[in-house]
Design a protein that fits this description.
Number of helices: 5
Radius of gyration: 18 Å
Number of strands: 9
Largest sheet: 9 strands, antiparallel
Structural class: alpha+beta
Shape: globular
Strand content: 35-45%
């Protein structure tokens, strides 16, 4: 199945209910060339179909995602600002709610890159424009490496890490942030605080 934007779905299954401005999917499965998405539940709620022209801000999303692989290349068909990210997330298990531009949820697990694993409760405003967005995160687990962080920073912001931050990351080699950790994670938390024109504030930084 090919959408007008060029987005191609290789396999699509689930129980679908459509009403005026609302789409509800149960036991959904979506497979593309780069993503494999398992959706026990997904609701897209707009007051009418016209609001889907401004999907990012006007359509509320409530979703449960399990055991999913998701490529930013697929999302970029609908959010062109993500076209240069080229990131793949694996082992995604999450609950989210709200429109893309004002979303919150619990990311129970996600992996990306060679070494990065994350569990976090989050709230994000301003997506998909990461550079101008505002973020709050209560991180329960984070494992990463300097190479992964530098690659993520370049993909999301178009800029590599500042030299000072990159030195911190390299000295840390591979950093692990368990729940309620403070002293051992301070170098990594300083690294995470760097974002152009935005703020990331894990709970232990408050």
């Amino acid at each position: 199945m090919r959408e007008r934007s060029g987005f191609v779905v290789e396999d699509l299954a689930g129980c679908l209910c459509i009403a005026n401005g609302c789409i509800d999917i149960r036991e959904g499965h979506i497979r593309t060339a780069k993503s494999n998405i398992e959706l026990p539940s997904l609701s897209l709620i707009g007051l009418d179909w016209a609001l889907y022209k401004n999907f990012v801000e006007e359509v509320d999303i409530t979703a449960q995602v399990v055991n999913t692989t998701l490529s930013s290349d697929d999302i970029a068909y609908f959010s062109p600002k993500m076209k240069d990210w080229h990131l793949t997330l694996t082992d995604v298990n999450a609950d989210v709610s709200g429109p893309v531009a004002d979303m919150s949820g619990s990311l129970r697990s996600v992996r990306t890159g060679a070494d990065t694993k994350l569990s976090v409760d989050f709230a994000a405003q301003g997506l998909p424009d990461v550079g101008k967005g505002h973020f709050k995160a209560d991180i329960s687990e984070l494992t990463t490496s300097a190479a992964d962080v530098d690659r993520l920073a370049a993909a999301l912001t178009g800029k590599n890490l500042p030299d000072e931050v990159l030195r911190i990351a390299k000295n840390a080699a591979k950093s692990v942030l368990p729940a309620n950790s403070t002293e051992r994670s301070r170098p990594l938390l300083r690294m995470l605080r760097w974002r152009p024109r935005s703020a990331v504030r894990p709970a232990c930084c408050r």
